[in-house]
Fold this protein.
Amino acid sequence: MINQAIKNLYTATIGIECHVQLKTKSKLFASETNDSRNLDPNTAVGHVSFGMPGALPVLNEKAVELAARAAFALNTIPQKFSKFDRKHYFYPDLPKGYQISQFEEPIILGGYIAIEINGESKRIGITRAHMEEDAGKSTHPEGQDYSLVDLNRAGTPLLEIVSEPEIHSAAEARAFAKALYLQMKYADVSEADLYNGNMRFDVNVSVSKTDTLGTRTETKNLNSFKAVEKAVEYEIARQIEVLESGDDIVQETRGWDDAKQRTFSQRTKEDAHDYRYMPEPDVPPIVITDEYIAEIQSAFPTMPGELRVKLQSIGLQAAQIETLIEEPILSQFAVTLVDEDAVKARTIINWLTGEITKLVIDSKATWKEVISAKAQLLQLATMVAENKLSSTGAKELLADAIAGKNPEEVAKEKNLLQVSDEGEIEKIVSEVLADNEKAANDVKSGEVKAISFLVGQVMAKSKGQANPGLAQQIIKKHLGL
Amino acid sequence: MAKKWAPILELAEDVRSGKVSALEQVKKSLRLIDEHSEFNAVISKIEKRAIERAKEVDAKIQEGADPGRLAGVPFIAKDNFLVFGAETTAASNILKGFDAPYQSTAIEKLESEGAICVAKANLDAFAHGASTENSDFFTTKNPHDNTRVAGGSSGGSAAAVALSLAPFALGTDTGGSIRQPASFCGAVGLKPTYGLVSRSGVVAMASSTDVVGPITNSVDDAALVLDVIAGQDPLDGTTIPRQESYLTPNSTFNLQNTKIGIIKEYFGDGLDPDVRNKIELAIEDLKKAGADVVEVSLPSLALALAVYYIVCPAEVSSNLARYDGQRFGYSFKDSKNLDESYEVSREQGFGNEAKRRIMIGTYVLSSGYYDAYYKKAQTVRTKLTNEFNEIFTKVDFLIGPTAPTTAFKIGENTQDPLAMYLGDIMTVGASMVGVPAISIPCGDVSGLPVGLQIIAPQKQDRELLEIAKWCEEANR
């Protein structure tokens, strides 16, 4: 094992490439469905995706729009002129013998992703992002002398985002991947479903003791933030070990074995393809006007960075904010609550991250219903603020409020309204004190805890409707405290 | 050669009025194809489907429904068009046995107007060539002299029209493949503006210059066919908006205010003196009628052929990558692994010219050579486009021969690919810059037809057809 002191002599340099699947209805250059998750193999395949003679690619304008939106999510604007190229190689899941990609003039150049690491914020530069079509899927059944090809995925629109090599630790790599994921999700350019491979990360890692970069390896196809972090961590350690033992790093493509939590060699530079890039003559260049850019910008949603600042302004804790940020629909809703009233917003946000999440998980409500019940939720929060309802009572009413029922009426029906009429509570308190002389004396003699017992008795006698705060005040008054 | 078919408009009118049935027209065409099979114009007949469609057209007429502008007009498509009812081979072994699962847009448009495809015409495999000698099946013979080539790559289509096997044929032109065989066979061959006719469903050769167009007996017929097939297509992103109509008017074209440029570079040493003589006679006619004829120069034209034979093979090598023996077409069955399947399927499936172009194309696109060849060629191509644009600010049309010679002997150039490529010298310019050009018959030399080429600015196909019609009438 290499000791920490030696490890500290090395600086790791990491660049990340991410393939983001754009959420279009149809493929990048054909009308077949882009969502084949529940389809049999080779059923979402037409002449274009099959590479039929004479079949021509026709650019999906929605994909261009989504890529243009992604530019804003990467803190830049799309290029006004971009074009497609052909990238050639032979493989059975690449039907045309070339992939249509953007090589020379991509739709996005520049931009950055902001990450936070150890409480400090840092910008990771974006080199470029380009549109391309995905290939099909090959499977190689073990022990068989054949392979299977499914072309359903062939032609799916991807945006490949390439970062500058400005990441220097596994934690930063993970933070970058997560931040990029959130930006894509918020910009609504991708379903960003990691489990289904909507975002796949490739990490380029090198280590060096000097200012000169070391030889890098590329570990491909990581589909979780944890895998990104672990793969980078593993590669840094492995490369240092190789160098310390006097060997050289081989420039190569590596894979990630999630079960064994290690990277493994896939192919070395000697096997590298000459892709023979060539301008794609079948697809005219993309020309975007200033008006088009302005239109996208004007409808662009608020990104997580700005939402966090707003949520922090009402004193929410970081962990709770991140819970909201995970789900764009939630954080965007939370921010509209902040605009209404800070106190009520806090109350409702606590429900959102607590009881309401449970309701949603248990399929008793959907987020859509929750959001459309904003008025009812605000009313409920108001009732709590005005002591008309206990917080326990409010929670009992959440499902009804989300279903659109009037909280005041349901509270009445369910006898959950708090009695805040002092006279009425006085009466009950007198009775309770008379019935519980010992406890009353305990309280008087300084055993403060006993007061909760008395409050409990008041609550029981009022069938839960008394305002407990008020009850306590009145008890104290009666006991001369 | 059989008796010439009547003008297409007349044929369709005869069918519509019940004077003759669509079925009779189709059967006549099929019979003529059989009778002239020794010319090898046709690869396959579409008998069953053509007869069914003819009956449909006749039934429509019986019912009083509109059978379309081309009702019952038989036609022949070059075998690189995907058409139902026969194999689509592009005259290559690798596509032998390929049944098209869809039809090209041009075919669909013709069918929707009642035209009926009766056969698939021979070509140089994948349209690589200028004589049909590169067909993997057989060489088409020139109708005027069966020891000579019909030209190419649309040689089967041009010969079919010259032999009157059908009233018209479809061809494709990438560097001259409609115009040159039309010139050799004595037909009218129109290469429209790039993008005016959809390429969807046409086996690609060089995507940036491939154009679909008609080969016909007359300019009027070419105009009518273009009028049916032109226009934007949601299946081809490179298609452009059309002009309102391409039908040539009855009134004669007014040459008084027309400026015509004679391309100096076309009248150099390589031009056969007898061909030159015929072209100059046609130019005299134009002058006499009042046209302002001036000599112009396109200095980069000398490089056009070199540029074409870099750009075209580059695109060919890319477009032919899909013929890998895995999904359709010929596949070597006894391969032990994937690489062998690729290598042997392509080795056995492609002919020499396809292999030659794949190798050149792969070379010029390789890392380290791309800048020196492909990129430089594109730079010259841009320069050539600029020169054409510049010239067209001064003249309305350009005029010259379609080919430097009349049809050459079969086998004359087969051992020398360079000599064969040189035959394209007059036609590649218009292809590289995407402007429309037409070849019309212009007399003959020792019984072999000469073609007059007229070139117009981009998207002025209608104007091109108008002046072509004037020249055609002057020549009669």
Q: What stands out?
A: Chain A has a mean pLDDT of 93. Residues 11 and 212 of chain A are 10 Å apart (CA to CA). Chain A touches chain B at residues 47, 50-59, 86, 88, 90, 92, 95-98, 147, 274-279, 281-284 (CB under 8 Å).
